[in-house]
Amino acid sequence: MAFIDLSKNEIQAKIVYYGPGRCGKTTNLLYVHESMSKQVCGKMVTIDTKGDRTLFFDFLPLNIGKVMNMTIRIQLYTVPGQVMYNATRKLVLRGVDGIVFVADSLKVQKNKNVESLQNLIENLNDEGLAVSQMPLVLQYNKRDLMDSNIPLLPVAELESDLNSGLRVPFFEASATVGNGVYETLREICKRTVKSVIRKVGGQITC
Amino acid sequence: MSLILTKNEIGRLEEIISDNILDSGAEHVVLTDLSGNLIMERGSLEMEDIFSLAAVSAANFAATAEIARLIGEEDFALLFHKGGRRNVYFSRLGKDFLIITLFNDNVSLGLIRLKIGSAIQQMATIFEDRKGAGPWRS
């Protein structure tokens, strides 16, 4: 649920990075946090286990400038990807305004990607939201491993597995080195802000 | 659904928080929604990480509500953390909002709870007045 504060001319929206365990959701946020100016992004909060797996969520607030004279403040969240943490994922999804689905390009993760996307669709339905109405961007992460001996899924196969029904923008990425991270973030911010402004219509001119 | 608050409504919320909660001795009050959006803050503390506090508090509140559900309770009546120098009291405002009150040991929890109860009733009228425009459900 976006919040619009007309006393400060500010829009706050929530974007969630979703995907299977170890696909690179936290790495996306870490890259943004480390590479962005501290005037733009706030302190990153991580609630993880001793093994660096996300237990609850990561959180990073961003101030991305102005649209229609309104300051846009984006709150980035990740969810824990492991199957057993579904209750936590549902809590983090509450009030979501936009989603980045991070898919793991490793061949062995093919089924996990599909299961996680299906889980996202089910969790959105439980919240009364339809994936078709939600600003959504796909990111195919770990493409830098293409040069290694590790078997990767071709982009065409990822598209067929995940995006044949959705038909949303996708980006190839390597979150550890930052490739595709900002392209993904820019696109989801654009779609989310557009969606929020469309939903509130003329009300923000009052 | 989005929540839109006008300058007058924010001003009225600030007034209620000042007159009820801050005047009773609380140090700082933060109003968030349960998605983690910061709606407003008021008080004497310099809060650098206010957005993080809002997000983590909303998550903490949601997780606690889930614990209540798992043990067969509808909700916990009291959600309070006692620190060495500062305490925090969480109270639900309607179905979708959360009031986070920071206070020290010079003020009793009982007084804070009493004043917040009164503030919640007054705030409810603001949200009820705009039924249909906002997500208020009592």
Summed up, what is this model?
Chain A contains five helices and eight strands. Chain A has helices at residues 25-35, 86-93, 110-126, 155-163, 181-200, and strands spanning 3-5, 10-18, 45-48, 54-67, 70-78, 98-104, 136-141, 170-172.
Task: Write up what this structure looks like.
The complex is a heterodimer of chains A (206) and B (138). In chain A, 32% of the residues lie in helices and 27% in strands. Chain A is of the alpha/beta class and 206 residues long. Chain A has one domain: Rossmann fold. In chain A, strands 1, 2, 3, 4, 5, 6, 7 and 8 form an 8-stranded mixed beta sheet that branches. In chain A, strand 1 (3-5) and strand 2 form a beta hairpin. Chain A is globular, with a radius of gyration of 17 Å. Chain B has one domain: Beta-Lactamase, CATH 3.30.450. A 5-stranded antiparallel beta sheet of chain B has the order 3-2-6-5-4, with helices on both faces. In chain B, helix 1 packs antiparallel against helix 3 (109-129). The A-B interface holds A 1-7, 12, 14, 42-43, 45, 47, 56-57, 59, 61, 73, 75, 77, 87-88, 91-92, 94-96, 196, 199-200, 203-204, 206 and B 1-7, 10-11, 33-40, 48-49, 51-52, 55-56, 59, 62-63, 66, 96, 133, 135.
CATH class wording of chain B = Alpha Beta
Q: Give me the CATH fold name of chain A.
A: Rossmann fold
Approximate strand percentage of chain A = 25-35%
Distance between the termini of chain A: 20 Å
Apparent shape of chain B? globular
Total beta strand runs of chain A: 8
At CATH's second level, what is the architecture of chain A? 3-Layer(aba) Sandwich
Write the CATH homologous superfamily of chain A: P-loop containing nucleotide triphosphate hydrolases
Distance between the termini of chain B: 17 Å
State the CATH class of chain A: Alpha Beta
> In the CATH hierarchy, what is the superfamily of chain B?
Dynein light chain 2a, cytoplasmic
Number of domains of chain B: 1
> What is the H-and-E element order of chain B?
EHEEHEEEH
